[in-house]
Amino acid sequence: MDKQILAVIAVDPAKVGGGAPIFYARNKDELSEIALLISRVFGAAVHDLNNDVMIIVKH
Amino acid sequence: MKYIVTLGIATLAGFLARLYMLRRDYRQYPSYPQGWAIHLFLGFIGGSIGAVIVPAVLEGDYSAISFLLLAASQFREVRNVERQTLSSMEATEMVKRGTAYIEGIARVFEARNYLAIWVALSVAIASELLVSIGWWRVGVSAVVGAILAMVLVKLMQGDQICDIAAVELSEIKFDGGLVIIEETVMMNVGLPKSRKVYEERALAGIIRPNGPNAKATLANLGQMQAIAHDISSMIGVYMDVGEQEFIPMVRRNPSTGSLHVLMVPSERDEDAFLAAIRRVPVLEGAIRKPLTSEAGKMID
To answer: Which residues sit opposite B281 in a β-bridge?
Structure first.
């Protein structure tokens, strides 16, 4: 597969669900902090869905 | 032994022609010195093949000519070797060359050996035709070879982006995580930290094609990747391994056919950025000429 969601990070548990690993953050700051750490582990890009949900995508 | 002068100067001419065609520029390809040694030796072989053909014809030794032509076909291997080398090195490139660029480079290297053969052949012919003027023929045939080499190199030179398009700077706009150049969304940068880097250091350019032919050429994915690779090898990228969000982006605006280039250079210099884009070669395999077709003319 070409692109793949490696992880989903969210503040509101009601907004996310499904197959990819999900990480919950307490607030926006923690959200981007977790996203940064995970993206560096995988060498992947972080995309902001603008609803306090971020996804880590391997391109 | 009566052909020794012809053989000598023609082989040397083929070798020198290959040397003249080897250029060391920002790409550092072929690499120096090993890559050079390989190609100069191939040029020497090519030159000697071109040189030997003339005495073989004069002596009526047609089986020798057949073998020489067979030997010349071995140069096809050069393309395979170049392709394999570049493809296996692709994994070590921060910004990929792309298969189209690799094909282009491989083709050029094969073609240059044939040019060396042509130069050697022309020098050998000139030298044998002018056998009556004694040692003067060495000088005259050297001139013939030099002129042919220069003409061939001139003819083989491809276009650069500045020949088919206008390049200008553009402004970068942000909408949440989206990075936008002239209404075209380039990418989604999620991290606030990375967004800050984009705001401070990124440069954006627009490549506007000069016509339908240029538009079709620029639409080639290989050409787009080549632009990304070449500008990053010329002015450097601000990224580390695994930082995918800083990879140079080339996107196409479907309504105008222009290309939008977004990158975070290691040094923020607008003029250098534009000069780098203008100097990117137009890949031979990407060139399209829709205007030569009936349907293409009707649209224009």
So the answer is: B160
Q: With a threshold of 0.95, does the pTM exceed it?
A: no
**Separation of alpha carbons B298 and B98, rounded Å:** 33
Q: Which helix (H) or strand (E) holds B209?
A: strand B203-209
Residue type, B50: G
ipTM rounded to 2 decimals: 0.79
Q: What is the pLDDT of residues B16-74, one digit of tens each?
A: 999 998 876 777 778 888 888 999 999 999 999 999 999 999 999 899 889 988 988 88
The residue behind tokens 């977790």 is A34
Cα of first residue to Cα of last residue in chain A, in angstroms, is 10
3-state percent breakdown (helix, strand, coil) of chain A, nearest 5: 30, 35, 35
Q: Which two tokens stand for residue B11?
A: 């082989």
Residue of B nearest to A47 (CA): B190
Whether A48 has its CB under 8 Å from any CB of chain B: the answer is yes
Asked whether B248 and B274 are in contact (CB, 8 A), the reply is no
Per DSSP, the three-state class of A20 is coil
CA–CA distance, B2 with B63 (Å, rounded to integer)? 20
B190 vs A35, A42, A59: nearest CB = A35
